């Protein structure tokens, strides 16, 4: 089979994935997508790319949960039929969209349009939430036996961050699962189909040369089995010990600005990953009283950590900052990472910055 070699070339965490795959023991493999929202005027390439990746992974079935079509119509159905025939027309691979229990090569699982209200008897895949597959809420609490399959039609971000440039990119995301069933466990890979190549140039060259369709592992796979213990994802993220908040002053147009920069909070360095950051302004001599707050999405929160290595920043205009007075003459910027389940990490402060004195009129 192809997947053992393909995993080494395609996986965002390739080494771990290739060691996890044992073709002699896999008895079923399925690709799972959610909320494809197919429509005549919509983009078709992410869906076709996902299907082609599933074909080269030699899946036994493809499952679509959640909303398959943006609007039920003959034209939308024809798009799916054409894509399926184009990719899988010469194979007997199953396409499963009906809700309820399904079985592929002896692997029993559930299909649900929405998150089940009660604990499931079998592992159940559902749609309707548009969660990034980096979010552990997709499979929490684990004893409910239900997994959100992400979204092929964009990842939702908090309302106040929708205008964030990262938020705009997240709404273009296309993500899904590759599920391998073993006699003693099930391995669920979390994939993104929007990236063309890995970040690492050597890996990118290998993928390009191999002409395989690339899908990026956005986080460690979920491993489900009687002897597997899940991580405590409710642990609050912390900055690296040597983290410093940098403040650069400059101009934007005719006005002064302050650019606040800091390193990314990543699992590889802290044990937990930040989804966004709260950046606040406070007086240097009264840090508990926060004057202004901005929320900034982590640069690649919905992708692998390799896409999120460049840190983050927030820009404050001079008009957004207080002016110096007899009581306060300096400000500091406070940065707090916010991780899974809204857990807040340790707050770090910048060095004090003098406030401008504005003339009274």
Descriptive notes:
The strands form 4 sheets. Strands 1, 2, 3, 8, 9, 10 and 11 form a 7-stranded mixed β-sheet that branches. Strands 14, 15, 17, 18 and 19 form a 5-stranded antiparallel β-sheet that branches. The termini are far apart. The chain is of the alpha+beta class and 361 residues long. The chain is elongated and about 80 Å long. The protein has 2 domains: 3-224, 4-Layer Sandwich (Purple Acid Phosphatase, chain A, domain 2); 246-354, Immunoglobulin-like. It has 7 helices and 19 strands. It has helices at residues 3-10, 14-20, 45-56, 74-88, 165-170, 201-210, 267-270; strands at 28-34, 61-65, 94-96, 100-104, 107-112, 124-126, 146-148, 175-181, 186-192, 216-217, 222-224, 246-252, 255-262, 276-283, 286-297, 312-317, 330-338, 348-349, 353-354.
Essential attributes:
seven-stranded mixed sheet, alpha+beta, 7 helices, 2 domains, single chain, Immunoglobulin-like, 361 residues
Per-chain topology:
Layout: H1 3-10, H2 14-20, E1 28-34, H3 45-56, E2 61-65, H4 74-88, E3 94-96, E4 100-104, E5 107-112, E6 124-126, E7 146-148, H5 165-170, E8 175-181, E9 186-192, H6 201-210, E10 216-217, E11 222-224, E12 246-252, E13 255-262, H7 267-270, E14 276-283, E15 286-297, E16 312-317, E17 330-338, E18 348-349, E19 353-354
Parallel strand pairs: 1-2, 2-3, 5-6, 6-7
Antiparallel strand pairs: 1-8, 4-5, 8-9, 9-10, 9-11, 12-13, 13-16, 14-15, 14-17, 17-18, 17-19
Task: State the gist of this model.
This protein has 361 residues and is an alpha+beta fold. 17% of the residues lie in helices and 29% in strands.
